[in-house]
Amino acid sequence: MGNATDRQQILNVIAELVTAWGNADADAYGAVFTEDATYTSYVGTYYAGRADITESHRALFGSVLKGTKLADALVDIRFYGPDTAVLTSRGDTYKGTPKKAEELSKAQTYTLVRQDGRWLIAAFQNTKRKKLMELITFRTVPAARPLAQR
Predict the structure, then answer these.
(1) Residue 89: helix, strand or coil by DSSP?
(2) CATH code at 4-149
(3) Largest CA distance in the chain
(4) Residue 80 to residues 1, 29, 38, 83, 84, Cα–Cα distance (Å)
(5) Which of 66, 72, 103, 131 has its CA 20 to 30 A from that of 97?
(6) Any idea where the domains of the chain sit in the sequence?
(7) Stated pTM of the model
(8) How do residues 9-60 score in pLDDT, each as one tens digit?
């Protein structure tokens, strides 16, 4: 499950997402989601369906997100059958100079499915990282630190 071609195609979907954001192209942004996709923003807003995701981003790209770019740094891709994958990344918006991977303030989970031979995002969850809270937790409860960081 999940060969190099699938992995590259999934990374290409994320690249399309990043490019669409940078171009403030809500239609291209929405096109990488399934018709019935769900999208949970870092502030907890829940969008249901490609049309909802597209139109909300059209409004956002014309206002509070105007002129921003999207940074995305891969953490992991896992395959759960031939047509389902979960991608975890760090991400953020920025203007000007791109942020380094360790500076990205959000943890993101994408669930992707293969439909009609193409990988699309079926669900997206974006969580704001609270680095100070992580630090406090790891200092007071060292065993809570992820194994990869020990």
Answers:
(1) strand
(2) 3.10.450.50
(3) 49
(4) 7, 25, 19, 7, 5
(5) 131
(6) 4-149
(7) 0.90
(8) 999 999 999 999 999 999 999 999 999 999 999 989 999 999 999 999 999 9
